[in-house]
Amino acid sequence: MKLLNKSLKPFTLLTFVLLIISIPLFYFVVLYIYIVDADQTLASKKVRIEDQLNHLYKIPKTAILRIRLLNELDIGYQIYDLDTMSYQSEGDRFYTAERFDQYSNSIKPYRYLESELDIFGNRYLLKAEVDMEEYFDVIPYTTIVASIFFLLILIGYYMINRFVARKVWKPFYKILNELSSLKIQNGEKLSPIDSDIDEFIKLSDNLLYFTNRSYSAYNQQKEFTENAAHELQTPLAIIQSKAELLLQTELTESQHEYLSQINLAVSRMKRLNKNLLMLAKIENKQFIVNEKLNLSAILLETIDLYQSSFDTKSIRVYTEIDEEIYIKGNRALIETLINSLLTNAISHNLNHGRMNLILNRKNLLIQNSGKLTALDGEKIFKRFNKDNKSFSGSGLGLAICKEIVILHDFKIKYKYINGLHSFKLWDFE
Amino acid sequence: MKVLIVEDEIEIARGIQSYFKDSPMVMEAVSNVRDASDKINLYNYDCILLDIGLPDGTGFEILEEIKRLKKTDSVIIISAKNSLEDKLKGLEIGADDFLTKPFYMAELAMRITAVTRRKSFDGNNVVESGGLHLNLIKNSVHYNDIEVELTPREFRLLRLFLSSKERVLSKTAIADHLLGEQVDFVDGDKLVYAHIKNLKKKLQTVGCPDYIKTVYGTGYKFCLD
């Protein structure tokens, strides 16, 4: 999730929750105000009716006639004679109830007041009502208004993010992009950040410090490997030449055996050195990779070269090689790549094992039988990986393959398919 | 035949000298550019083994001087740096061959014979030993006028043996010669064994004596007796 969206999400959630809470809250507050208001209206109505009936008409009989008239008019209240009813006074009683209204032809909620009136010493019951329909309309209206505000807030926040935050974070994104595409092995360096925000300047300074440090560490390590390998060549040459001289003298069988072992060790170390130097050279980009090469021909030549090895291990080789597959690359490196992959497929193979070599326009597939468990597809391409040390190889073959593949912008992957260790090379066209 | 070794690692120079002690080659050794330049100006050599990294300069300077003096000495560069640029530069100035350290003496012997023969027997480059005739131009082999059909690798193998007669060649040296630049070839010993077996069989069918002897199972030796 992007940084800018990260803050948008909880904000949206908060706004939404507040909105949900606000709708009933709004409803109850409005309802409460309405009821208080209605009750006040009813109470004052009662006082006015009682007052008017007692003082406007001096004769009680007229008052009774007025009451009857008022009842007939039905203008929001009825007055009942309590002497004819057995009514126990409980003081003023406010309540809400619904009834059918003939004028609007619907059932409506009303607020009622039931209260005792004293008119010329007679007890009357007043039942006054106030229409409460409006408050039902409050719910949809508040919801609509709140939703509109919610939307407006979201749009506003998004706009702020887009135009303001994006501007503020721009240097951060710039350095982030630069960092993710940074190739230290190519000697690329980060450019300092252009911002007046203290945190960004600090981040940039620290990143510059660390990338420069890893750059120099990388260089030192590379130089060290290269120099060490070079410096080893001379003592190796001396050991080898002395061993060769010794071989020409009169030796016993066991001395011969020792000498042969020395020779093997020297030859292994020579290979190791050679491979380390090769890796250093690939990393230093000392190879030019723009020759047009016939991969089919290189593969066929290599297979031919290894024929005797297939024979000694009785490996059944199945080939399906399309002709005239051209790639762009460095001849020496591509030959090394094919050689290493084939060597690998032979040396890890079983006696009487099988090998499949398939080349077409899309990919090169090298499969071999061998150990019955899958290897770690990541680890096998690492230098001096333990899985590769079982044989006398340098443990660098596949690491070199990987580097060659990276240098050429190809892709390589290991997979264990149907009991066969498979190396797939693609993206070479 | 006179050979000059220009090499600052005295042990390597001495190793080469001792190895060729009993051969018809006379080996002289110098360890810097100044001494090498003195020798070149004074004497003629059949072959000069030239190291590139020297204490007072580079082997390229010596190579340029040889060319300036219009000498016909063959030059083999022996360098610890197996870099393509060095190789190309050396060959461009006029070196005849390039050998990367560490190398086997047997390999060196073969290279020395090859470059010197190329100069002295142009066109008719045949190595002869014990009735075997190797034509280095046509890559063909005859034993007493009967042609022996050899694969390129078997031919290389036989040529190596002929340039290091009466010497024990270790299996690793032979494998190195046969496989050359191939990194990480694993079953070198088996490969050597298979090729030698095939070569011996082919030589036997034309009646050639079994010149190639196994030495305690660790090496091989070509002897005429």
Features:
A: 429 residues, alpha+beta, Beta-Lactamase, 3 domains, four-stranded antiparallel sheet, 56% helix, B: 225 residues, alpha/beta, Rossmann fold, Arc Repressor Mutant, subunit A, 2 domains, 14 strands
The count of domains of chain A is 3
CATH architecture of the largest domain in chain B: 3-Layer(aba) Sandwich
Fill in the CATH topology of the largest domain in chain B.
Rossmann fold
How far apart the termini of chain A lie comes to 35 Å
Which whole number gives the mean pLDDT of chain B? 86
Pfam families (chain A): HATPase_c, HisKA
Transmembrane segments (chain A): 12-35, 138-160
Domain Histidine kinase (chain A): 227-414
Enzyme class (chain A): transferase
Describe the structure.
The complex is a heterodimer of chains A (429) and B (225). Chain A has helices at 3-55, 60-73, 134-180, 198-247, 253-283, 295-305, 307-312, 331-347, 397-408; strands at 77-81, 93-101, 106-119, 122-131, 291-294, 316-321, 326-329, 354-359, 363-368, 411-417, 420-426. The mean pLDDT of chain A is 85. Chain A is built from nine helices and eleven strands. By secondary structure, chain A is α+β, with helices and mostly antiparallel strands. Chain A has a five-stranded mixed β-sheet, covered by helices on one side. A four-stranded antiparallel β-sheet of chain A has the order 1-4-3-2, with helices on one face. The longest helix of chain A has 53 residues, at 3-55. In chain B, β10 (140-143) and β11 (146-148) form a beta hairpin. Chain B is 42% helix and 24% strand. In chain B, α5 packs across α6, α6 (152-163) crosses α8 (188-205) and α7 crosses α8 (188-205). Chain B starts with a strand and ends with a strand. With 225 residues, chain B is of the alpha/beta class. In chain B, the strands form four sheets. In chain B, strands 2-1-3-6-7 form a five-stranded parallel β-sheet, sandwiched between helices. Chain B has eight helices and 14 strands. Chain B is elongated, with a radius of gyration of 18 Å. At the A-B interface, α4, α5, α7 and α8 of A face α1, α7 and α8 of B.
